[in-house]
Batch of 2 targets.
Target 1
Amino acid sequence: MDAVTAWTNERTRWIAFMGESMKFDWKALVSLLAPIVLVNVKGGEKLIPLVPVIVSGITSAEELFKDGADKKAHVLGVTEAAVAAANATGQVELDPVEVADAADHAIDTVVKVANIVRDAKK
């Protein structure tokens, strides 16, 4: 994807997040914030190839589970599977333990940031 297409996609998501009525959309907010937060926390550089998968895991967990621990376990499970798949391609070599540690902290940070924004809109 080229830079113009990426920017257009992000702009479209931002407009969807803000909306005409300024209605809050947690999933849209996570889709915008998570890529930035994930790669900027401690160990985030290890997550770069997995950002789309982790973002998808966070947003799907929100729909699938009520309990926070179940949501996080889902995202970590998706991340673990993505590490195995990425390593199987032979194009990258990701350390599953390092990625899990970085993802554990990064997921918490993404959720905290999104919740701060949600609470600020109340």
Note: The radius of gyration is 15 Å.
Target 2
Amino acid sequence: MMANSPNNFENIIKNIEEGAYFTEEDLVVEDPSLSLRAILSQESPTITIPYMPHAGQIPFHCSEKPVRLLACGRRWGKSEAAIAELLSFCFGKNKTKKPPKCWVISPSYQQGRPIHNKFLEMCPRSLIKSQSKQDKWYQFINGATVQFKSENQDLVGEGLNLIIVDEAARLSRTKIEEELIPTLLDREGVMIAVTTPRGKNWFYDLYMEYKEGANDIDAWKEPSWLNPHLSWEKIKWSFKRMRNRLTFRQEICAEFLEDVNSVFANVKKQSFGDPLYEPAFGRDYVFGIDFGRHDARTALIVMDVEAKRAVSIALLEEREWKYQMKLLEVYYKKWRPKKIYVDMATIGDKITEDLQKEGYEVVGVKMNVPSTRNSIIEDLAISIEMGEVSYPDYRKHQEWEVLINELQAYEFNILANRIVYQAPKGHFCDTIMALGLALYGIKDLEREAKRFIPFTRPYRL
């Protein structure tokens, strides 16, 4: 049941077994002419929605604070509660005389599908006056509007009464602070952010403000098992299947943890010593290069074959091929690598062949093939964690700080039962790719050497 005040939630508790529903009182708006009875026929004074709030959701619906946070485990019912609150807000819970304007924001189009589908499932068709399926825009019979958007869309310039941020911990701080919050100012709007905790970010900062007594924020942090519709057996089953206990604590227990989804461990521990500015006598080197395209830069890492140590790094912001070739030419003449390993997905077969014709010992690696990319990333992660790969001290040599930042930010996600490695939005991974290619090259040379060990017969008198 949706309501306008905390007192109405006594009715929810009394009628909880009957299911949740709207009544005429719940749906009345400021203008009496837009009340439910005036809009709908006399035979339909009640609209039923498929929503029955459990005990943990009721306090959330009672809140009237301008910022409301739900930091809860998976399957707690965050999306259902957010959509129910959206419908309540559009039909009377807001304090504006004009029909409210609302947005529901998700990190991406794909991640926004579940909450959009939940809206379509919960919202009675009789409340929708018009809609645009392409823009995911809906206008209700009282003039209120709702639009579903993703983070990569333009979120600047419109005054809003309500913003619901789904999977909030995945959105960037810049989007929230510079684009979304200003849209609420002129209408004294409300922001509802719902998410499973994901590290210590802007959402965590708001939650800590609430814990410290901020009077404009309400927040709830509850584990998945407080949803009475989830069986305890299912929770125990999840615990057994999640090998990473930190993941269980974050996704199910709703704890704010750091580095749960990090791919690389011991990143700073392996950063020590000085780089080389000239090749050492008698040492062999390989290059790992991630050529920049579109909005990415070019990264080149020189690695000592025997020590498996990165000794030199070059970053190039220029995207034009002539500048990238000049960088390669300069470094090649200086270091004389045994081989150069490049991401073939960024430059293509033809350019790889052209480089080979010009005398460069180039090996193209298809990093756009998931199995190849994952294997290289996993091999690099294991080698760093085991202390087999090292690189210069980023505290003394700032050019290496870029690599450290990328390694620490790089993360994995499980999508459709497969692991996906990626940099978070707004981050790069070019130095990681270059380092991974260089390590792949060293392993490739080792395999090659084993294939060509000469067989000698024992000497006999």
Note: The chain has two domains: 67-251, 285-451.
